[in-house]
Amino acid sequence: MATPLFHVKICGVTSVTDARLAVDAGADAVGFNFVEGSLREVTAAEARRAIAILPYDVLAVGVFAGMPADEILAIAKKVKLRAIQLHGHLDGDGPAVDPPSRCAELVGLSVIRAVRMAKDGLAAARAWIAAARAAGRGPDMLIVDASVASTALGGTLGGTGSLVDWKALSREPPLDIPLALAGGLTPDNVAEAIAETGVQAVDTASGVEAFPRMKDTAKVVAFVDAARAALGV
Q1: Which of 28, 80, 196, 225 has a CA positioned 20 to 30 A from the CA of residue 73?
Q2: Where are the alpha helices (DSSP H) in the chain?
Q3: Which bin fits 183, alpha (ψ -120 to 50), beta or left (φ > 0)?
């Protein structure tokens, strides 16, 4: 299987201070949320200042849901993102949908697809990946996040603190692209989550916060240490 784009991602970063904290703790990816209505939404100016202090080996990821490709590309160029995380719904006709064709439109950027466990597991995610490949390009990596209602607005799609069903994920047939786990991960449960699911990477936002928009130093350090030890990286 391909090497994952990252092993430990600290998401929902909104400031230079928290970007530096994530780097100093040993995270190899930092996420910036551009989803309208999110508690952790950043402006292009805020993201640009934070990304400017990241070493090149730390991946700057922009999180989007339902935004047209031309707008994503414009933001990515302005703030110097290197990867895009599509966090919208897999299908439907609401505003926060990222269709399979979106991957091929994001030329020059790595694409991470956030998906959610359903009653039929990752069946919908597998169908989306196949459709994306048929449209010209599939995602480079998947993040499995906690389930949300099909009617959820963009700002409520992530950072909820809800857990993924780890046992159900562990029973899923293997995918042919790297897999990360998000959803309710904290310093106290991340090692168990990795052991239970066998994922190659983890992602957290609310699990390392003092409160929304501000990370907790001790939690970030403890999370990264626990995750890297469990992943063996």
Answers
A1: 28
A2: 16-25, 44-51, 69-79, 102-105, 123-134, 166-170, 190-197, 217-231
A3: left
Cα 13 to Cα 17: distance, rounded to the nearest angstrom? 9
Sole residue written with tokens 């929902």: 12
Q: 154-166 in b/e burial notation, b at 16+ Cβ within 10 A?
A: bbbbbbbeebbeb
One-letter amino acid identity for 117? M
Quick: pLDDT tens for 48-67.
Answer: 999 999 999 999 999 999 99
Q: How far from the centroid of its chain's Cα atoms is residue 98's Cα?
A: 14
Answer whether residue 142 shows pLDDT above 90: yes
CA 17, chain centre distance (Å): 20
Kindly report which listed range (86-90, 103-107, 220-224) carries the lowest average pLDDT score: 86-90
Condensed to tens digits (0 to 9), the pLDDT of residues 172-216 reads 999 999 999 999 999 999 999 999 999 999 999 999 999 989 999
Helices (H), 80-216: 102-105, 123-134, 166-170, 190-197
Q: Residue 94 has what pLDDT?
A: 73
Closest to 79 (Cα-Cα) out of 124, 33, 44: 44
What is the DSSP-derived secondary structure letter of residue 1? -
Are the C-beta atoms of residues 36 and 155 closer than 8 Å to each other? yes
Is there a contact between 203 and 181 (Cβ–Cβ < 8 Å)?
Answer: yes
Residue 169 clears pLDDT 80, i.e. is over it: yes
